[in-house]
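User: Structure tokens for this complex, please. No commentary.
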Amino acid sequence: MVSEACPDETLVEATLAGDDDAYAELTRRHKSRVFGVASRFARDAAELEDICQEVFVQAYFKLRQYRRDSPFQHWLMRITTHKCYDYLRKRQRSAFTSSIESMLESGHEPAAPESAAPHPDLERLHAALAALSTKERLVITLLELEDRSVQEIAELTGWSVANVKVRAFRARAALRKHLESRP
Amino acid sequence: MNDFDLDALFAAARAGRRDTSKAEYGFETRMLARLRSQRQAQGDTGSVWAMVSWRMIPLFAACVMALAVWHSQVAALADDAEAFNSVEHPETADLFSN
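Assistant:
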């Protein structure tokens, strides 16, 4: 019987036993964080929905690999990070460089909150982020926009701490250069 | 642009998190529907493989029988060659027997 008081591990066990309601409850509990991170990378609402669905579907099919040595949420965030990275890479492969202007022209929602007034500096920042390499964009978004520590990013991505630091440093330099070149 | 300006930009972007409440509405239902369709698709793929494997059983059996016949013929030829060798070259036959 699924209840809101059940710990995540119990719901995982129930899901593995074939209880879809247990997985729906797990999804309900963790979807906000997944949506929060994915919204930093998604171009529009459709892509956001797609990323989040793929995260939870992949988590379901890999649930037997969850070792329970860390909270379920950490494991889920690793999947989310990898899925966002895959989307960024796919986008770069298709040579689609999005900018806020083109998104607005095509009717897509911007990554900035819909309620907030469009801020020219933020638009510049988003355009500069879109010009970064996939790995640099992932690192700088997690570090500066999601406020994650270097250690956390290393755990989420599977890269070494030194690697994350180097990529963050390069990303900052590239961002600064991009913003200076387009005042 | 200095580090201070860049940090101020990051802070502004951090504060301006996109409102995803509309997108989150009813997400579990949509996700479970997709999950079920994928499970169904995986089940269909599994059943197709099972059907193909089942139909291939006579072919596998024929292959095994052909291999057995070929092996017995090769073994018989090897026996003949060994017998011939022991008659023609008894010294090498001793080598093999040791």
